[in-house]
């Protein structure tokens, strides 16, 4: 496939960094610093149409994903999303299928929203960090109050309308020591089938650590710096590497004995892909660069974790989206994922399972002092080593045309 035909994925922020919550670990809130205070964070309708038209025109293959993120995307209002669906239908080619996705905190979801999401076959990612005490530890509103009940109402509303909804759970200091309580809450109480675990790693420098530890939430214009991927320190909320490895390992040991084929944990599915010779996520692929981010005004960045000036690619009102996504600068960004791996990583027996994970977390040194080791390396290495035998067996079952869940009969 030529570089001009390389597929790419966009995460788009229709309300910019604006959010009705004040989650303490959400450094995305600081991205408001990139834009003048007088500028509205709400995407204009002409920018919306230009984006959808360009995305569809430059898409490779039959499926085109229109993915919304935040901030909180539902702040843009239901009419905006109705328009986005209509525009996608207007501009799509006869052979193309549109997949609509939405990541949300859920607090604005009601029956009208849920009905719209169901009618248009949206895939929804709902942020829930576990049982109430763990969820409310950091996922609070602007006044620092609980959001758990509002999110539970959204979960029930979406389920009642048969919306495809996944749990998106961040792993941090408040829940990382309770893996089975978190997992069983999702599996048994919420009856969730699809779960994604996202490690919270908030980088900081000696100069920014004090402010970062205070949290990124609060009202617009709060005293918070622009978050950048720099510094070798982490906040108090951040999960520790070995702690994250134990979290994943504990859940895996229960999942592999009873839940294979019925509960789908993104980390486990991606790992199985690696053992089967596939790379189903940018963070475990040898290179990356195929997942970009766009702000409300059309500014495109290399990745949603690198929305900062050094990774700005351009604006879709000036340069076609397909050219930005496949530019030399973006290709170099993606190639650096492998090129900058330390020797320690390239000689690691589980390199194939992570390829150094996401570059955003590569800020510590190897045992021999080389820069660029992933902060979560120790945890991932423990996890991948622990799951190697059952993963090899499940991959073998798949190659034989059988089902991975047969492993539960062998354990």
Structure description:
The protein is an alpha/beta fold and 411 residues long. Helices cover 36% and strands 15% of the residues. The protein is built from 14 helices and 14 strands. The strands form three sheets. Strands 9-6-5-4-3-2-1-10-11-12 form a ten-stranded mixed beta sheet. The chain has a two-stranded antiparallel sheet with strand order 7-8. A two-stranded antiparallel sheet has the order 13-14. Strand 13 and strand 14 form a beta hairpin. Helix 1 packs parallel to helix 2 and helix 9 crosses helix 14. The longest helix is centred in the C-terminal third of the chain and has 23 residues. The radius of gyration is 21 Å and the shape is globular. The model has no long low-confidence stretch (mean pLDDT 96).
